[in-house]
Structure formats: structure tokens, C-alpha cells
Design brief:
Layout: H1 3-32, H2 39-66, H3 82-93, H4 102-109, H5 116-130
Helix pairs in contact: 1-2
Length: 138
């Protein structure tokens, strides 16, 4: 997403807010003239006010998420790549969740030939640290 798209979203939010204000003014004039309050206008004004607030919230959230990652080529928050950035982050973390081989365990311990029980305990700790679990076998 570009800065132009963000500006468009914020412009839309402002238009919604402005239209809600206009509707509220029309409702106020009707009241002053002693006319019944136009219920549909009251509802529409509320709808536009909520839409304006929600658009602004969503834009703020998108930029907060995007600021957690590298900026785009223009140096702006890369709001168009948030999902791709999260998927890439998950892919980077995935290799750490692979089970350890006996050779890797021996390198971690740093000496001797680990017993089957020691290998089991190291793997158990590795899986816990990586957030993975396995069903008990046998």
C-alpha cells in the first residue's frame, strides 16, 4: 500500500465524519423548526460517525503492524506487505523447531557420548523452547 492509498483512506474517514456533522446540523435545524426528528437521518449520522472512527482505527493498526518490519523502498511503513512479512518471519523460525539429531545433541553437550536418556531430555527441552510438542509414543 502506498502513502496515496493511506491518504485516500484517511480522506474517506474525514468525508464520513463531515457528512455525519452535516446530517447532525440538518437534524438540529429540523428540531429548531419544530419538525419531528428524522429517525433515518439520526441513524445515518451515527453510521457515518462509526465508519469514520473505524477507518481511522484500521489505518492506525495497519501502520503499527507495518512499523514492526523493514520500511518499503520509499522509506515508508510497508503496509502492503504485512502478511508476507509475517509469513517470512514464521518461515525463519520454522527450522528451530526441527528435532535435534544425535550429532547436534552431542555438539550441544560438548563432551562424550550422550545416553539415550540424556538425548531424550535434551530433545524435550528443545521442543519446549521451540514451542512444539509431540504425542507420547508407545
Amino acid at each position: 500500500m502506498t502513502a496515496a492509498t493511506q491518504a485516500e483512506a484517511l480522506r474517506l474517514a474525514q468525508e464520513c465524519a463531515d457528512y455525519a456533522t452535516s446530517l447532525r446540523s440538518t437534524i438540529m435545524v429540523a428540531k429548531l423548526e419544530g419538525k419531528p426528528e428524522p429517525v433515518s437521518m439520526v441513524r445515518a449520522a451515527g453510521l457515518f460517525e462509526r465508519a469514520a472512527a473505524r477507518i481511522a482505527e484500521l489505518e492506525a493498526s495497519r501502520f503499527a503492524y507495518a512499523n514492526e518490519f523493514e520500511p518499503n523502498a520509499d522509506g515508508d511503513p510497508d503496509v502492503g506487505s504485512i502478511h508476507a512479512n509475517i509469513r517470512a518471519l514464521k518461515a525463519q523460525a520454522q527450522p528451530a523447531r526441527e528435532p535435534l539429531t544425535d550429532e547436534q545433541i552431542q555438539d550441544l553437550i560438548g563432551f562424550g557420548d550422550p545416553t539415550e536418556q540424556e538425548c531424550y531430555l535434551v530433545r524435550l527441552g528443545w521442543e519446549a523452547a521451540g514451542g512444539t510438542t509431540k504425542e507420547k509414543q508407545g
